[in-house]
Each structure stands twice: as structure tokens, then as C-alpha cells.
Amino acid sequence: MSSFSIAWLDLREGADFAARDKTLVTQVLQWLGQAADPVSPDRIIVDLGAGTGSTLRALTKLGANNLVWRLVDLDGKLLDEALRRHGKNCLIEDYQADLNIIGELPLTGAHIISASALFDLASAEFIDALIARIDARKTAIYAALNYDGTTIWSPAHPLDEKVLAAFNQDQRSDKGFGPALGPDCTAYLQQALENKGYTVSVRPSPWQLNAKDAQLQQELINGIAAAVSEGYGLDADELSEWKKFRIANMPDGNCTIGHWDVLALPR
Ligand SMILES: C[S@@+](CC[C@H](N)C(=O)[O-])C[C@H]1O[C@@H](n2cnc3c(N)ncnc32)[C@H](O)[C@@H]1O
What domains lie within the chain, and their CATH numbers? Predict the structure, then answer.
């Protein structure tokens, strides 16, 4: 199951890029430099849940080059778009595949496995199985933009807390990988990677949205309201009032949404 539109991924990309922790990206680029093999100068990065290539664009903008990008996604339309945008300038191998079939993921020879805005959708079981397949002596892992369950709106509204609690409950429902870790993802990932023997760095990468992100905020508000509209005990009229208030306050208000970036390097 996957239903991420190109329009939504484009809309969030600016906020994602601004939020990414640049220190970790520098370490990713250093790792890729160190991992260069004289026999095969191209280093392989496998981007899981690649979408239209947001990680490729972010890392390229920050200095990555001469990489083989293995883009893996269930959604062929998103992969086609990634190829359309970058197929002429980057070495891309696209794999339309379900990440749940871990044994068939194209991880062989990978110097690094990356993902953005993915692991909070995943279950503990998925993360365990993925990490079990990876050679922790050779392959680094860079997992950016994992939602942490915090959302702070300004100005505040009396229903904010209840909406957030419901939304975070929804974030733990099945997003295609079994019960999602949602806000617990970063802590789980960190522990699992440390247990596997990695040196793990974790840095905050919050979205900081204001009037210039009006369209993203509007989609976000609509998405949150839709996600919590049924099954979480919220009154429909109160929720509708919350939504109106949030949209009316976009021009002068702001919103911070917590995410974390994780980098695991072989010891
Ligand atoms: C939130 S989007 C992030 C996309 C991209 N990494 C970005 O940052 O723009 C999650 C991505 O994971 C993909 N995805 C979700 N479930 C999947 C699955 N079971 N197998 C492969 N890809 C999946 C979606 O199609 C989507 O492209």
C-alpha cells in the first residue's frame, strides 16, 4: 500500500531540505568518500522509499557526486518521475519493489542505505528484519526526517493537544509495514542499530513552517483533520472549528514539527 502523490512530495521537499541536519549529511559524504573502492569508483547508495528522488536531490545539492543511485519504491509512477528528472545526469537503477520483501531488496554492494520520511511509517518488525539483512561492517545507514510526535502551533488553540494525541495514535496504525512505530521510530532505530554494532548519531531536523509555507501548511492541516476525523473521539464541529482557526492563522502563525535524522556508521 502506498499513496504518496508527486504533488505532495514536491510540496514538502523544501521544508524537508531546510530541516535535514547538514552535519550528518557532511558525515554521509565523508563516509562515501572513504568508502571509495579503487576498482569501482562509483559508490552505491540504495534509497528506500525513494519517491521522486528527494534524497538524491538533497545530497547532490550538498555535494554528492559520482554515485550509483539505486532507487527503490513500490510506486512505479514516482520512480518514473525520478528517472524523468534525473535519468540523464545521474546513474540511476530503479527498482519497483515492496520493501517488505526484504530478502529481495537490491542491497548487495551498497556502501550506504538511505531513506527519508520513511521509517516512521515502518514497524519494529520491518526495521529488525532490514537491519538483520545489512552487513554492519560495510554498509552505513542514513535515515532522515523521522517524525517524533511533536507539533507546536502558534497561536495555540484549545483543541491542539487532543488533535495531536489523536494524530499520533493514527501515526501508529498500519502504514503498509504492520503497526507503525510513528513517533517511536527514532529511538527504536537508534537502539536496533547500536545493538547491531553501529556508531549511531541522531540529530533534530524539525520542520519550521511559517507564512511562506502556506500551501504545505494547508495540506498538512487538511491531512491531520482527515486522519483524526473518525475513531479518535473528537467532536466533528470542534474539529471543523480547529481546522478553520488553523487555516485562518496561517499568514501570521507558525508551526514546528519535530523530526530526527539518524546516521549509523560501521565501527
Ligand atoms: C513519505 S514518502 C517519502 C518519499 C521520499 N523519500 C521523499 O522524502 O520525498 C514514502 C515513500 O515510501 C514509499 N513506500 C511506502 N510503502 C512502501 C513499500 N511497502 N515498499 C516500497 N515503497 C514504499 C512510498 O511510495 C513513498 O514514495
Answer: 6-149+177-208+258-265 (3.40.50.150)
